[in-house]
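Query structure, 359 tokens:
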């Protein structure tokens, strides 16, 4: 299915891009010029300001195979973004292989697809009730019982649903705040659930990662109570070695920690060269502990080994019908069953499913 142009489409896309980075906009930056990268970089914390891609920094494309593309299910109303059912932002997969995708726009909802990408059903709607979404939902994750956890940024809560989309309960991380925290409320932007069903929540505004049990009971802050432990915390991932990966949005880097939250090493800084990011937007780990990080400005996915050494970059996808297509507007990356890679492309309102051909 192809997009049909509508005058609201481009305006909505710009709104989405702005909203996506709203959580990273409360910190000012003082930049200096880096003549080696051709971009503006922060002198201490490696944050970007008005940085532009460096076309001379592009490396060879890492070979991948296009598996399929997924478009959302339209409600067939004028309120939809276009005829393909809104803009996909975040993805999770349950034990049966079904995909749960947060769609944002006029409708804030979760759409569910089978492993082949066939639409099954949707749940969630905007409203003022406990089970309804606000106008800004973000990350989601699924536990071992296939319960679905969705971050509602404006409600400052996590909403939990059963596999069919029926609301179960909600909870927040407000108990973790101390008087040292600059913001006396939480900003739950991203969520991840480990193999023991422990729930990790990024509080972007306060720079914390809060840990809860599977029923929502608050347990502790990852790495200790120090405010700003994970500045502008974003997506969280785990590998099969027990390590925890946290995106730090404005610093354009990934902090790799042990299970207690002690930093082991850092991947990335601001720039457009190998191993650098202009706006890191997504993170995923495959079964071989290869690290995939998307950049919404450079429109590439960089790949690293388990120690953070650069392996290659994915910047275009072969398409037998339409020829090689460059990736664009990469808001999120997710690796599901059998190491299949799911990438959300905002301008096309779609999820692109690929397979890394490198063994």
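Result returned for the query:
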């Amino acid at each position: 299915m192809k997009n049909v142009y509508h005058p609201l489409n481009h305006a909505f896309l710009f709104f989405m891009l702005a909203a996506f980075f709203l959580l990273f906009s409360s910190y000012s930056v003082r930049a200096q010029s880096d003549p080696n990268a051709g971009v503006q970089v922060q002198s201490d914390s490696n944050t970007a300001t008005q940085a532009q891609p460096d076309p001379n920094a592009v490396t060879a494309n890492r070979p991948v195979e296009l598996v399929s593309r997924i478009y959302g299910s339209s409600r067939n109303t004028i309120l939809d973004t276009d005829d393909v059912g809104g803009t996909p932002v975040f993805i999770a997969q349950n034990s049966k292989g079904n995909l749960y995708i947060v769609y944002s726009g006029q409708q804030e909802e979760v759409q569910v697809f089978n492993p082949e990408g066939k639409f099954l059903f949707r749940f969630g709607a905007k409203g003022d009730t406990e089970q309804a979404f606000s106008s800004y939902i973000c990350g989601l994750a699924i536990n071992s019982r296939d319960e679905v956890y969705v971050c509602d940024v404006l409600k400052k809560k996590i909403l939990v649903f059963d596999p069919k989309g029926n609301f179960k309960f909600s909870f927040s991380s407000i108990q973790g705040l101390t008087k040292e925290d600059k913001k006396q409320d939480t900003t739950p932007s991203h969520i991840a659930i480990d193999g023991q069903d422990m729930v990790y929540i990024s509080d972007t505004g306060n720079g914390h990662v809060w840990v809860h049990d599977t029923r929502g009971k608050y347990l502790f802050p990852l790495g200790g109570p120090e405010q700003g432990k994970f500045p502008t915390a974003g997506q969280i991932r785990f590998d099969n070695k027990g390590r925890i990966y946290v995106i730090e949005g404005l610093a354009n880097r990934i902090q790799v920690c042990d299970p207690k939250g002690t930093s082991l090493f850092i991947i990335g800084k601001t720039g457009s060269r190998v191993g650098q990011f202009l706006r890191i937007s997504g993170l995923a780990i495959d079964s071989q502990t290869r690290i995939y990080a998307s950049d919404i400005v450079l429109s590439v996915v960089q790949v690293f080994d388990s120690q953070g050494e650069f392996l290659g970059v994915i910047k275009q996808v072969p398409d037998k019908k339409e020829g090689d297509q460059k990736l664009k507007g990469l808001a999120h990356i997710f690796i599901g069953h059998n190491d299949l890679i799911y990438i959300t492309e905002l301008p096309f309102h779609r999820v692109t499913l690929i397979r890394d051909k490198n063994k």
